[in-house]
Batch of 2 targets.
Target 1
Amino acid sequence: MEKGAKIVVTGGAGFIGSHLVDRLVHDQAGEIMVYDNFSRGLESNVKQHVGNPQVQVMQADLLDYPNLEKSCAGAKYIFHLGAQSNVMGSVQDPDSSFRNNVNGTLNVLKAAQYHQVQRVVFTSSREVYGEARSLPVEETHPTGGKNHYGASKAAGEIYCQLFSGELNTPVSILRLANVYGERDYGRVIPLWIGQAVKGENLTVYGGKQEIDFIWIDIVVEALLRAAEYDVVGCPINIGSGQGTSILDLGRRIIEISGSKSKLDILPARSAEVVRFAAHNGRMRSLLNLQPPDDPLYGLYRMMAA
Ligand code: UDP
């Protein structure tokens, strides 16, 4: 990336966004603007940058277009991570999911086009595939989604392709698998670590799930490389390539924590995808990124924290 450039990170106080901001600051990549409405993002995720003139925090909504547009003035790169970011939340409030993920993305793209931003990196999701026909899932698999979240990300991608093609605003599209790491909350790994540490049973919704878990550091690296690679508008899966059984995940968390917890099998939630593993050939060849042998290697670090 061009040194000293202005970089906007939407959702920059969120789980993935704040790790990206840390890395950009560490690399002295440029002048960074964290654009976040703090609905799910946390001030504590960016407090380490308070007083750093390299980092500006803008508390604002993606739906506030005039503010977003002004914030993007002079930007060379926009990492667009701000979103309504979980499946069950989108089912409970489909309108909010649509507003944040479709209108919000359109606003980012309009602002990027207006200011002739050099590259937008859009974080899409494996949820765009819905329940896949077979595993591992290639990027050419039909999209549509099994829930409102998947549909909203698929719609966001279509706008990215429009802007990237006809409207001359280069966009990289990453379809993230299930990202895990420190600072996340409310998702299966942090929830289960919390339950195991307290000796409570781990709540398993269904138990047939196979999930492709990918450690946060690899995702941050993918985002940075995506800002530079020269194929735009073409989605790339970011995943380990392996489907981990959710029951194995539970057993592993119990084992590492030395807990006496058991698995408590509850009814499956129908909106959720049951099986996913990413085909990661593009990630390896276009981004030159190798996934780890053990997708859960980051668990040890999370549990030591
Ligand atoms: N899950 C579970 N127990 C929990 C939380 C989640 O069994 O206490 C399962 C959930 O049913 C889903 C998977 O874990 O199949 C991933 O859900 P999560 O909420 O972590 O991520 P997302 O829905 O955003 O993919």
Target 2
Amino acid sequence: MSYRNLLGIRNLEPSDIATLIQMASSFKERVNRGENTASPTKHVIGLLFFEGSTRTRVSFEQAAHYLGHKVTNFASQGSSMSKGETLKDTIETLRYERLESLVMRHPASGSAHLAARFFGGPIINAGDGQHEHPTQALGDALTISEKKGSLSGLRVAIVGDVLHSRVARSNGWLLSKMGAEVRFVGPRTLLPSNLSLFPGTAHYDLLSGIEGADVIMCLRLQRERMRQGLVGSEGEYRRLYQINSRTIRYAERDCLVMHPGPINRGVELDDIAADGAHSTIRNQIENGIFVRMAAFEWVFGNVPTASSQKSTAKRGKK
Ligand code: NCD
């Protein structure tokens, strides 16, 4: 079987990203019209979540359901990993159990690449440590495109705990590849020291970082990954970096306020920012289903208009 992996955004071509977003958008229309979206090929897919998840896991399950794939959930607790089996041996075991694709979330950066080496079928990275979360970025891109028409030329401020965020990295790569201006905004302690390797500029002051922004993407303070002392106190963080009705005025009047969830309500954003007219948080959740449908079909090679899209991409590059 010929297949692809979806391990990250960094190694995707802009034409791949455009194809995935187009596929997701078309799945959304078809599901909303109540059409049959069954995949031409049926597969048994393993969902391996070694970290907590609500949105990502459920939307992968929903995506598989709309496509007619079968899902097997794997919980590390209660598996042989609790007896000391390694990740590599676990992945190989699932291969010989004849699972055909794995969706994996794991706390170690690079774990999805390891799985891809030993599985022998498509791996979809559902978040590996602080590294990448490609389907989140694709869903966010679909949401922005729906609201703003296109990604190119937009000013996007990614605000908060960039250091620990795979969402920030995948979104940074995707948005810059698609022609947006990316700004990483946050306290010095929460921006990576090697930010020069990232596709965007660093801003330590919130108001200048979000000035004129078309999109503000808030990030959760990831306390579970934090060493002591990276933020003085939650109160100080709120005072200096919270997106609320006062600070949002520095961005464009019609700016979008995004958040991948889960939210620390009242910390990185207040109720007005989270639930008000600028917020796209609910759209992001819904769109997560359709990008994950696109991801499944893309890794299995079921790209309906591949030839026409390839020629469009080639023409676009000239
Ligand atoms: C994010 C994650 O797990 O990386 N959540 C998500 O997938 N929607 C962000 C986070 O945990 O803060």
